[in-house]
Specification:
By secondary structure, the chain is mainly beta. It contains no helices and 55 strands. The chain is elongated and about 190 Å long.
């Protein structure tokens, strides 16, 4: 089995195999290519020539150009290619260069514009010029086309002469329009004066050779916004800033008062004086309103304008008609000794306030507010003294007080009910009435002039008047009772008054209390009448056969009292009214 390195000779080609240029010219590149090695090495290159003398420009590169030496003829060039791994060198096929009989070429031209360009119209002819050539010493003839107006085009062509050859044409230079602009010069704000006014301006960018432009809109009279406008009729101009705004502002007009602005109410129309400033004779489109009035109140004088030439400064001022005190303030009546009715004379444009104070006086305060009529009422209390006055109220202020009315309300007649107490008085009602079963001790209480109402009856200190125990004998029960006429039931028990055999029906031992009340509510209507109380002895066994048993002898006595109420009529107290300033 064979083991070792296999060497393969590379295959070398050249491209192109022919080149041609002038005897002083430089060819385009020739390039070699080596193939067939697979051992991973590199190639090195060495260009060589035969025939007419020329210069190899890159002798150790895979490609090279070649420059002639000025001799007409042929040169063969080739490249030796060496493979680094094996050291094998292979020469490429030849490339034949033909050197023709031509002059020194002009290889490049630098123009005043690098490429197709534009130039702004300036009123003069413009052209493209040669800045430099390669070679710098080259000679040539020049053909130039110039341009002046917008859209025209300029160009230049050179042709080598003498020992130089070559033809070059410049990029195109196109003339474009020139931009012209308008700007203000000085103030652009004016105030209406009634006369024509003009704004100053500057136009930039124009040239003397073309005056085909104009400016309009630079004058005006009335207030408003204006526009100055630059126009052109030339193809050589383009408008930049073609307008600017300027203004005639409205003139400020104002109103002010002339003289007094406060008047007292009289009931007649009154007018305030005024002055209007800032107007001009050429424009009278203004007016003043609100300078007259009759009623009390605040008024506003107003300056108005209907012209665009005016603007309002101080357009209003205030003035007033102040209220005066209402006249003829009168208390017309006092109803039910409490409700007081008032009237007064109107003050135009006002509402009213009723002020009052009540005795003991401590200071007036509003009793009735926001009165819209010329009358009102106030409900007081009877038997009080009040003081009242009225004031007129308007937006312009409050009047001074009217005259003062002093009112005593008085009172109606009435019945006054007072407590009533008769006081204790000794009574001796207990005498024989002449029958064994009868009433003894009849007692009547008479009402007063306006009536007495008895609510309670009191009895105390009932004692035996002598020794009449013999009158109370036997086995029958005797009862001493109150008898109240006009009351049902008519028998009201006397406390501890029932005895079968005793020295007396009521004695100090039985009546230890200070008094014994009996519910005995009873009244007699009207202004007179009586309430009758009777001490009744009932039962059986009353004896009339005793030593002193004659009618009229007191058996026993006691102290009686009654309490209740008494009604007294009080006559009416009339109302009184008086006035003071």
């Amino acid at each position: 089995m064979f083991q070792g390195i296999v060497s393969i000779t590379p295959r070398v080609t050249i491209s192109p195999t022919t080149l041609s240029t002038g005897r002083f010219g430089t060819t385009s590149s020739a390039t070699v290519s080596a193939t067939g090695q697979n051992l991973g090495g590199t190639y090195s290159y060495q260009w060589k020539k035969t025939g007419e003398t020329c210069t190899i420009n890159t002798p150790n590169s895979i490609s090279s150009t070649f420059t002639g030496g000025g001799i007409v003829g042929f040169s063969d060039v080739y490249c030796d290619v060496t493979y680094s791994t094996t050291g094998i060198k292979i020469s490429s096929p030849n490339c034949t260069i033909t050197w023709t009989n031509t002059g020194i070429p002009i290889t490049s031209v630098t123009w005043s514009i690098a490429s197709a360009s534009t130039s702004i119209y300036n009123g003069t002819a413009q052209s493209v010029t040669v800045v430099s050539t390669t070679p710098a010493e080259a000679t040539y003839t020049t053909t130039t086309t110039s341009a002046t107006n917008a859209t025209e085009q300029a160009s230049t062509t050179i042709i080598g002469n003498g020992s130089y050859e070559g033809t070059f044409t410049s990029p195109i230079l196109t003339i474009v329009t020139r931009t012209i602009s308008l700007a203000s010069s000085g103030s652009t704000t004016f105030i209406y004066s009634g006369a024509s006014q003009s704004v100053n301006y500057i136009v930039s960018g124009t040239v003397p050779q073309d005056t085909n432009w104009s400016v309009s809109g630079t004058s005006g009279t009335n207030a408003g916004n204006y526009t100055a406008t630059l126009s052109e009729t030339s193809a050589n101009y383009t408008l930049g800033t073609s307008t600017f705004s300027w203004t005639i502002n409205p003139k400020t007009i104002s109103i002010a008062s002339s003289g007094s602005t406060s008047f007292a109410w009289t009931g007649n129309s009154q007018s305030v004086g005024y002055i209007v400033s800032g107007t001009v004779p050429e424009d009278t489109a203004w007016s003043v309103s609100g300078t007259s009035g009759t009623n009390a109140g605040n008024y506003t004088a107003t300056l108005s304008e209907t012209s665009a030439n005016y603007t309002l400064g101080t357009s209003t001022f205030s003035w007033s008609i102040t209220p005066t005190a209402p006249a003829s303030f009168t208390v017309t009546s006092v109803v039910n000794f409490s409700i007081m009715n008032f009237t007064w004379t109107a003050v135009g444009g006002c509402t009213y306030q009723l002020w009052g104070d009540v005795e003991p006086y401590s200071g007036y305060s509003i009793y009735v507010n926001n009165i819209t009529e010329t009358f009102t009422s106030y409900a007081g209390a009877n038997q009080f003294t009040y003081k009242f006055y009225v004031v007129a109220v308007a937006s312009s202020g409050t009047s001074v007080a009217s005259r003062v009315a002093t009112v005593y309300t008085g009172r109606a007649a009435y019945t006054q009910v007072n407590p009533y107490d008769s006081g204790y008085a000794t009574q001796q009602p207990c005498c024989l009435t002449g029958s064994a079963n009868g009433d003894i001790g009849l007692k009547s209480f008479t009402q007063g002039t306006y009536g007495i109402t008895i609510n309670n009856v009191f009895v105390r200190n009932c004692i035996l008047n002598g020794n009449f125990s013999s009158l109370l004998w036997g086995t029958a029960t005797r009862t001493v009772r109150w008898f109240l006429s006009n009351k049902s039931p008519q028998n009201v028990n006397f406390p501890t008054s029932s005895f079968s055999s005793a020295p007396a029906p009521w004695n100090s031992a039985n009546a230890a209390a200070a008094g014994q009340p009996f519910p005995a509510t009873q009244a007699v209507t009207g202004t007179s009448g009586t309430i009758t109380y009777v001490l009744r002895c009932s039962g059986s066994g009353w004896s009339t056969n005793n030593a002193s048993g004659v009618s009229g002898i007191f058996w026993f006595s006691g102290q009686w009292a009654n309490t209740g109420t008494i009604s007294i009529f009080v006559p009416a107290d009339p109302s009184t009214i008086s006035y003071s300033s």
